[in-house]
Inverse folding.
């Protein structure tokens, strides 16, 4: 009888603990932060309540050998109920992707913008000037900016700050997608980043502008120094 009662209590405890597990932070092998989990859950739950769309965040250390991010996302499809969007981050490969099902959900947010490597217009211009190998490449890079994930992941960090960088990047991307989906459906999320997130992005833009300006000034100075040295010779 004692064993039976103990077993029943254990089952109840396990069931209760499972009910408390994160739903929209579908997998987290990277950040492991209760506050981060709570914020993602609030946004995900409100988005689902107001639009019927589930936005999942999946963060893993690495993938199986020869498995692509897209293949990994497709393996999750059978576990999830449509309509849903999955934001995936693979830490060791520094890969980020977004999968939506049904595919018509891609119209609810701008995947290209969210995953842009440039946070600002000027950043896109500089990237286009540096990396474009053709006019089409230039136009492609030039017109793609406003990224909320990759620019943060590109920032240098050490020690514990690396995980903090990951949490900021994925939180920014998650809230960006959530806000865009909500706006498409004519609703607003009270739990999203709001003005706080906008302040962070504005600060990020200021930093990027400063870096770009410094790089341009340094480039001009080097050019002028070389020209002056050439003239003297």
């Amino acid at each position: 009888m004692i064993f039976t009662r103990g077993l029943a209590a254990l089952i109840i405890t396990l069931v209760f603990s499972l009910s408390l597990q994160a739903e929209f932070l579908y997998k987290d092998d990277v950040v492991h932060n209760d506050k981060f989990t709570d914020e993602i859950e609030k946004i995900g739950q409100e988005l689902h309540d107001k639009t019927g769309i589930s936005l999942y965040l999946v963060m893993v250390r690495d993938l199986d050998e020869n498995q692509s991010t897209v293949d990994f996302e497709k393996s999750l499809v059978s576990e999830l109920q449509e309509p849903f969007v999955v934001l995936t981050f693979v830490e060791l490969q520094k890969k980020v992707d977004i999968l939506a099902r049904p595919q018509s959900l891609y119209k609810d947010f701008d995947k290209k913008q969210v995953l842009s490597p440039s946070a600002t217009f000027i950043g896109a211009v500089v990237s286009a000037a540096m990396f474009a190998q053709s006019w089409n490449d230039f136009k492609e890079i030039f017109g793609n900016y406003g990224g909320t994930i990759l620019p943060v992941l590109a920032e240098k960090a050490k020690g514990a700050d690396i995980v903090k960088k990951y949490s900021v990047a994925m939180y920014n991307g998650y809230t960006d997608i959530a806000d865009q989906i909500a706006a498409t459906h004519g609703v607003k999320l009270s739990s999203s980043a709001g003005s706080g997130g906008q302040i962070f992005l504005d600060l990020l833009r200021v930093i990027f502008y400063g870096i770009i300006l410094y790089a341009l000034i340094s480039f001009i100075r080097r050019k002028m120094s070389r020209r002056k040295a050439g003239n003297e010779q």
